[in-house]
Amino acid sequence: MDDFWVFGYGSLMWRPGFAHTETRKARLHGYRRALCVRSHVHRGTPERPGLVLGLDRGGSCLGMAFRVPGELRDEVVTYLRARELVTNVYLERILSVRLEEGGIVQALGYVVDRSHVQYAGRLDVEHAAESVRGAVGISGRNEEYVENTVAHLKALGIRDHWLEAVARRLTLEG
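User: That's the sequence. What structure does it adopt?
Assistant: Structure tokens below.
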């Protein structure tokens, strides 16, 4: 069985949770990293939802591609589905990603389902920060999620100017 790739754009980048043999920066065209998923459990409640990341249409996203040994395919896909498809707000897709050193690979990834009730749409910095501010779920404060995400991205040498602007807005008005 051939090796396969998984594309991560959020917490999968620094906490993949599955065995892999190689990690490379990769760019996905046609999708962008966005706080576009209303979180009713982990970073908010049904009464006060927060926001978490999703891959939404438009632009491009720099993330990480993980090469997984083919013999681990079933185990890794089962793990990823349990992690990413809890509320079915994400759609499992095979995505073409360009590795930083060159070459294009097909990678398993998860994009937001725009028809799902948790889809928040395309938010500007102000509205995203407003939705994040004060939201708390079983995994903690939503502000902490955004701040930690920005810090982890910077540690990996990945800049996300929109997300950084949301984090700055939270700091200024928090």
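The two ends are 51 Å apart (CA to CA).
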